[in-house]
Write a structure and sequence with these properties.
This protein is of the alpha/beta class. The protein has 12 helices and 21 strands. β20 and β21 form a beta hairpin. It is globular. Bound molecules: dihydropyrimidine-2,4(1H,3H)-dione and zinc ion (ZN) (2 copies).
C-alpha cells in the first residue's frame, strides 16, 4: 500500500512568498507533505523542468449569468469551468446576480442549481446587489454573509443595476457590520449618459465611441467617490476592473493612508487599448467592455500598478458574449455603440498572458504572479489558507506549468463557448500542462480528465466581522479598526 495518493515530483514550487525545489505529496485532496524522498504514491506525476504553482483563482467572472439587459452569457458552468481549468485555474468566483425585484435567496438558489451539476472545479459566489430593499439589507444580506457569501458587487452605472450613493452607504454599512467585502463597478452613470447622448446625436455611433463615452474621468470620479463613501462608514472596498490611471492612483493614495481599499485589474487593460475598438466594420464590438481599455500610456500605468501596491488581484472579468445575435448583436446587426453587449472573454487566457508577458518578460516575479492570480484573492475573499497556496493542510490545487511551452492563442484552441478571443494571434510562452483540483487531475495531456459537476461549492468565512459595532444605533466610530492587516 502506498503512502500517498499522488506525488508531484521534481518540480520548482512557487508560492506568493517562496520559490523552492520540492516534491508534493497529496492524500484525500490535501497537500500532506513537502520535501524530497517523501514516500510512495499510487500516482507519480513527473514535474521535472516545470513550475508548480497554486491553482489560479479567477475572482471575477460572469458564467451562466444574465446581463443587466438579460442577455445570457455564452458559457454555462460546464464550458466556463472547463475553460478556466485549461487556463490553470482551480477555483472560480462568479456571481449570483440580483436583478431588481428579485430576492437574494432565490438568486443564490438559482446559482447553485446552475453550477452544482456542471462545474468541474471548485467555485464560490459573490452576490450582485442591485435592489437593496429593507428586507435585503436587514435580513437576507446579513444572513447570507454569515453563511459565507461574504462578498458582493454593486454598480454605479448600468441603468438596471446601479444603486445610488445613499444605497451604497447602506450596503457598505451592512458589509462593515457583518464582515463582507464590497466590490464596486465604479463609473459615473450620468457622465456616460451625457457623453453618449451627444455622441449619438452627432452621428458618432461606431464601436470606438464606446470608449469615448466611458471616459476615464467617469471612472476616476466614481472611484474617488466610492472610496470616500467607504471611508465615511469605515468599510472595506475593492474597486474592480480598474482601467483609468487616475482611478488606480486614487486606490494607491487610499492604501498609502492605511485605508482598507483594494484594487483589481484585468488582462484587457494590460494587453488591449482603445485602438482595438477602432477595427474594421463592427469588429471593434469584440473589444467593447466597461470600463474600456485606455491608451498606451494608460496601459503602462496599469502595469505599474501591479507592482507598486495598487492592485492585489488580477481577474478575467470573463463576460462571454459571442460575436453574433446571441451576444454582441443581441439588439440587431448594426447596433450603435450604446447597444453592443458589454464584455469580453478571457477566463482561459488570463494566466498564460500574464505569465508570458509578466513573468517571462521580467515585469513580475513568479511570486508576484502567484499573489496576483491566486493568493491575494484567497485572502481577500475568505478562502485562505485552504486555497491560494501550496502548504501542508491546503487543498491540493496545483497548476503544473511548462514555462517553455510556446503557443499562439486562437479561439479554436480554447475551451469556452465563444466564437472569438480578443487575443487571437498573440504568441505566449508558458502554459499549464497539468491542473489538479483537490487532488483530482482535471487537465492532463491536453485533455479534460473529470466529469461534469465534480467541482465543489466553497463555503467562505465572513471577512473580519466588526464585533466592536453595537447593534443599537450608536454613532459609528470614525476610527479605522479593521482590515489593514489583511494582506
Ligand atoms: N462590464 C461589466 O461590468 N461586467 C461584465 C462585462 C463588462 O464589460
Ligand atoms: Zn463591472
Ligand atoms: Zn464584471
Amino acid at each position: 500500500m502506498s503512502d500517498f495518493d499522488t506525488i508531484v515530483k521534481g518540480g520548482t514550487v512557487a508560492t506568493a512568498s517562496d520559490t523552492f525545489q520540492s516534491d508534493i505529496a497529496i492524500r484525500d485532496g490535501r497537500v500532506v507533505a513537502l520535501g524530497h524522498d517523501i514516500g510512495s504514491a499510487d500516482q507519480v506525476i513527473d514535474a521535472t523542468g516545470m513550475m508548480v504553482l497554486p491553482g489560479g483563482i479567477d475572482a471575477h467572472c460572469h458564467i451562466e449569468q444574465e446581463s443587466s439587459t438579460l442577455i445570457m452569457t455564452a458559457d454555462d458552468y460546464y464550458s466556463g469551468s472547463v475553460s478556466a481549468a485549461f487556463g490553470g485555474n482551480t477555483t472560480i468566483i462568479p456571481f449570483a446576480a440580483q436583478h431588481k425585484g428579485q430576492n437574494l435567496r432565490d438568486v443564490v438558489k438559482l446559482a447553485h442549481d446552475r453550477a452544482g451539476p456542471k462545474s468541474v472545479i471548485d467555485y464560490a459566489f459573490h452576490l450582485i446587489v442591485s435592489d437593496p430593499t429593507e428586507n435585503v439589507l436587514g435580513q437576507e444580506l446579513p444572513a447570507l454573509i454569515m453563511e459565507g457569501y461574504s462578498s458582493f458587487k454593486v454598480y454605479m452605472t448600468y441603468e438596471m443595476l446601479k444603486i445610488d450613493d445613499r444605497q451604497m452607504l447602506d450596503v457598505l454599512s451592512v458589509a462593515r457590520k457583518y464582515g463582507a467585502m464590497t466590490m464596486v463597478h465604479a463609473e459615473n452613470n450620468d457622465v456616460i449618459n451625457w457623453l453618449s447622448e451627444r455622441l449619438l446625436n452627432g452621428g458618432y455611433v461606431a464601436p470606438k465611441f464606446h470608449a469615448v463615452s466611458h471616459n476615464s474621468i467617469a471612472e476616476s470620479e466614481a472611484s474617488r467617490r466610492a472610496i470616500d463613501l467607504a471611508r465615511l462608514v469605515d468599510a472595506k472596498l475593492l474597486i474592480v476592473h480598474v482601467s483609468a490611471p487616475e482611478a488606480a492612483q486614487a486606490i494607491l493614495n487610499a492604501r498609502n493612508q492605511g485605508l482598507p481599499i483594494y484594487g483589481e485589474t484585468c488582462p484587457q487593460y494590460l494587453f488591449l487599448t482603445a485602438e482595438d475598438l477602432d477595427r474594421n466594420g463592427m469588429e471593434g464590438a469584440k473589444f467593447c467592455c466597461s470600463p474600456p481599455p485606455r491608451d498606451q500610456a494608460g496601459q503602462e500605468a496599469i502595469w505599474l500598478g501591479l507592482t507598486n501596491g495598487t492592485f492585489q488581484v488580477i481577474s478575467s472579468d470573463h463576460a462571454p458574449y459571442r460575436y453574433d445575435e446571441t451576444g454582441k448583436f443581441n439588439a440587431g446587426p448594426n447596433p450603435t455603440f450604446k447597444k453592443i453587449a458589454n464584455g469580453i472573454p478571457g477566463i482561459e487566457t488570463r494566466m498564460p498572458l500574464l505569465f508570458s508577458e509578466g513573468v517571462g518578460k521580467g515585469r513580475l516575479s513568479i511570486n508576484e504572479f502567484v499573489a496576483l492570480t491566486s493568493t491575494n484573492a484567497a485572502k481577500i475573499y475568505g478562502l485562505h489558507p485552504r486555497k491560494g497556496t501550496i502548504a501542508v493542510g491546503s487543498d491540493a490545487d496545483l497548476a503544473i506549468w511548462d514555462p517553455t511551452w510556446k503557443r499562439t492563442i486562437s479561439e479554436t484552441m480554447l475551451h469556452d463557448n465563444m466564437d472569438y478571443t480578443p487575443y487571437e494571434g498573440m504568441e505566449v510562452t508558458g502554459w499549464p500542462r497539468t491542473v489538479i483540483s483537490q487532488g483530482r487531475v482535471v487537465v492532463m495531456d491536453e485533455k479534460l480528465q473529470v466529469e461534469r459537476g465534480s467541482g465543489e461549492f466553497l463555503e467562505r468565512q465572513p471577512i473580519d466581522p466588526d464585533t466592536s459595532i453595537p447593534t443599537d444605533n450608536s454613532p459609528l466610530s470614525p476610527k479605522h479598526n479593521f482590515g489593514a492587516d489583511l494582506l
